[in-house]
Predict the structure.
Amino acid sequence: MSDRTFGIVKPDAVKAGATGDILAMAEKAGLKIIGARMIHMKKEDAEGFYHVHADKGFFGELTAFMSEGPVLVFVMEGANAIKTWRDTLGATNPAEAAEGTIRKKFGTNIERNAAHGSDAPETAAFEIGYFFNGLQLFSR
Ligand code: CDP
Ligand code: MG
């Protein structure tokens, strides 16, 4: 069954020039990119995006990091897209991420871990809708 997931090339990876490599890894994993654009979030934009983590100790630093520079937000579609993209990302902490994963290759530490991926259908729907409307997505 084909489903959708949401990704972000985070500020660290954009700055490092890894945007193209990360998108290529999505496509090599069999995911179709159906929408993408570059944005620079304000801190409150990042706070809204990560609202589920508002009570965590890392929330302030995380939202400062996510708003420190431009990011690429993008939407993918494919069979088991959510799991496929999470597997391609690797573990949250790059030190624990498997060889060949995005976070192993491009992540620096548990915060600056290069890229984001939705973790469930409900969060994917919220995250896609936070940045894209239907006319900006090109299913095919
Ligand atoms: O991104 P993922 O779903 O793998 O992890 P999360 O637990 O939903 O956390 C969201 C983001 O917060 C992570 O990707 C990290 O950038 C950051 N984080 C952090 O700075 N410190 C932690 N202890 C855990 C997460
Ligand atoms: Mg998460």
About this structure: The chain has a mean pLDDT of 98.
